[in-house]
Design goal:
With about 70 residues, the chain is an alpha+beta fold. It has one helix at about 1-15; strands at about 20, 35-40, 50-55, 60-65. A four-stranded mixed sheet has the order 1-2-3-4, with no helix packed on it. The longest helix has 13 residues, at about 1-15.
Length: about 70
């Protein structure tokens, strides 16, 4: 029984590193509030990628450069 929980935990911990990196931001209105995507469009310094967080209509998205995730 414990091994099932351990396997599920390890699978869930590995998912964030599997996130794909987009070449451009999703179109306006397509990124739900609070959801985050990584975008490598050349706007961040070397070794970093842009993280875009969806917002409510009328509120700008949050955009920040973060270290490139390990693959």
């Amino acid at each position: 029984m414990k091994s099932k929980y351990m396997i599920a935990f390890l699978v869930l911990m590995g998912l964030p590193c599997c996130q794909s990196i987009l070449k451009s931001e999703p179109a306006k209105g397509t990124l739900p509030q609070g959801h985050k995507v990584l975008v490598d469009d050349g706007t961040c310094p070397a070794g970093q990628v842009k993280q875009v967080t969806g917002a409510t209509p009328g509120t700008p998205r949050v955009k920040e450069c973060i270290p490139m995730p390990a693959r």
